[in-house]
Design goal:
- InterPro entries: HAMP_dom, HATPase_C_sf, HATPase_dom, His_kinase_dom, HisK_dim/P_dom, HisK_dim/P_sf, HssS/ArlS-like, Sig_transdc_His_kin-like_C.
- It holds the Pfam family HisKA.
- It is found in: Cell membrane.
- The chain has 463 residues and is an alpha+beta fold.
- It folds into 3 domains: 5-170, PAS domain (Beta-Lactamase); 209-303, Helix Hairpins (Orthogonal Bundle); 306-457, Histidine kinase-like ATPase, C-terminal domain (Heat Shock Protein 90, 2-Layer Sandwich), CATH 3.30.565.10.
- Helix content is 57%, strand content 17%.
- It contains 10 helices and 11 strands.
- A 5-stranded mixed sheet has the order 6-8-9-11-10, covered by helices on one side. The protein has a 4-stranded antiparallel sheet with strand order 2-1-4-3, with helices on one face. A two-stranded antiparallel ribbon has the order 5-7.
- Mean pLDDT is 80; it is low at 112-118 and 413-419.
Length: 463
């Protein structure tokens, strides 16, 4: 059966408090009671020993007791609530205190309740020899209730002690119940609010945010995580809508062109010349390229399974790619420079390295102005190999910069053929870099240029 967290926490805390109190109470009561009984036993034995010594000393040299001596023994019997009987060596009774004081004691304790009568204990008699000069001259019988002949004060003290334990346990339980309720509310109230926020998010309200503020680290972190999740889902929803719109935009243009051309050919407005058929063919190729790019992205997301790493002279490989791209840059009157750190050896997939560099250099070529320069820098430190592509092009706005790695995203909202591309080049680059356990970062300012930095960790074990 499921129960609320409030009840569960309260019950758990209360059970812990009750268990702790019971354990402490039982152990404390046992130890105190044991120690008090030891004390009572010692005091009782001292009284018996003192009484025996008193009676032996009261006997005169003729082994007789005077009336004053008997009166003194009687007073001691009343004071200590003992029954005392003295016999001579012939077993004749020469003194008895009578049991009236003991009967009175039992009656008084009975009036105080059944509990005290039970604690009083059974009636006990001890027979002790009277000795002088190592010879027995008589016997003394001492009678009392219970093992320790508890007095009214002794019984009152034990009763007060037990009451104090009961009161302490009750007070501790009430205090524990209050504290458990307060602590449980402090934990469950924020969680209830967070649950409501989560349910609203599940219903589709991604604008909602948690306003829970707690001094409990875990609850505050959970609140922050839910807010981050809501923000992320909201961004993903916007990206999904934009992706759908972008894909529709990418597909609509070539399809509209094909439809117009084919209708013109069917209606006889155009003659099927080679130039017009070639125009249709280019649009088909554009569609094919788009679909292939989509398939490539799906493959790239699993490409860690197909990495073909080999030991390469990274400097030499990138230099070859740069030399291959230089004629294209020269046509646009852009300088392409390579700043190399000689003989950087790395374990890397050669084909994917080419794909990364061609995409980055193609972007720099597209978005750089004439008479500007593009610089490629390769170096390494103890941990990473760093590849930097730096241009002086049109740059990327602050609004566009966070989205440049998203599929089909292009800062050029018009999607003109002048810049070309499908908006997935940087998506492919990021995927390939991450497959190599690397990171890619972009810094850019409009009209000042863009810097792309790739860091790929050096795996010394593999080298």
């Amino acid at each position: 059966m499921r129960i609320s967290l409030l009840k569960k926490v309260s019950k758990g805390f209360l059970a812990t408090v009750i268990g702790s109190i019971l354990i402490v109470s039982i152990i404390s009561n046992f130890m105190i009671d044991k120690r008090f009984n030891q004390y009572l036993s010692q005091e009782h034995n001292k009284k018996i020993k003192k009484l025996r010594s008193l009676v032996e000393d009261l006997y005169n040299d003729d082994l007789q007791l005077s009336s004053d001596d008997l009166e003194q023994i009687s007073r001691y019997s009343i004071m200590e609530e003992f029954y005392i009987e003295i016999r001579n060596s012939e077993n004749q009774i020469i003194f008895t205190s009578g049991k009236s004081n003991l009967a009175h004691k039992k009656m008084m304790n009975s009036m105080m309740g059944r509990r005290h009568e039970d604690k009083l204990g059974e009636y006990i008699e001890e027979v002790l020899p009277l000795i002088r000069d190592n010879q027995k001259f008589g016997y003394m019988t001492i009678g009392y209730f219970g093992s320790f002949n508890l007095s009214k004060e002794d019984l009152g003290f034990k009763d007060t002690l037990n009451k104090s334990f009961i009161i302490s346990v009750t007070a501790a339980l009430i205090f524990g119940l209050i504290i458990s309720y307060i602590l449980s509310k402090q934990i469950t109230n924020p969680l209830i609010k967070l649950t409501k926020v989560s349910n609203e998010m599940r219903k589709g309200d991604l604008n909602i945010r948690s306003e829970v503020k707690s001094n409990t680290i875990e609850i505050q972190e959970l609140s922050n995580s839910i807010n981050y999740l809501a923000e992320t889902l909201q961004n993903q929803e916007l990206l999904r809508r934009r992706l759908t719109s972008d894909m529709a935009h990418e597909l609509r243009t070539p399809l509209a062109t094909l439809q117009t051309h084919i209708e013109a050919l069917i209606d006889g407005i155009w003659e099927p010349t080679s130039e017009r058929l070639e125009s249709c063919y280019e649009e088909v190729l554009r569609l094919t390229k788009l679909v292939t790019s989509l398939k490539d992205i799906d493959k790239l997301e699993q490409s860690n399974l197909y990495l073909n790493k080999e030991e390469l002279n990274l400097t030499l490989e990138i230099k070859k790619i740069v030399e291959t791209m230089k004629p294209l840059y020269k046509k646009k009157n852009i300088r392409l420079n390579f700043n190399e750190d000689n003989n950087i050896i790395a374990l890397i997939d050669k084909d994917k390295l080419k794909q990364i560099m061609y995409n980055l250099l193609s972007n720099s070529l597209k978005y750089s102005n004439e008479n500007s320069s593009v610089e490629v820098i390769v170096n390494k430190d103890e941990k990473d190999i760093t590849i930097i592509v730096k241009d002086e092009g049109i740059g990327i706005s602050k609004d566009d910069l966070p989205h440049v790695f998203e599929r089909f995203y292009r800062g050029d909202k018009s999607r003109s053929k002048k810049t070309g591309g499908t908006g997935i080049g940087l998506t492919i680059v990021k995927t390939l870099v991450e497959v190599h356990k690397g990171k890619i970062e972009i810094e850019s300012e409009p009209k000042k240029g863009t810097v792309v930095t790739i860091k790929i960790p050096i795996n010394k074990k593999e080298l």
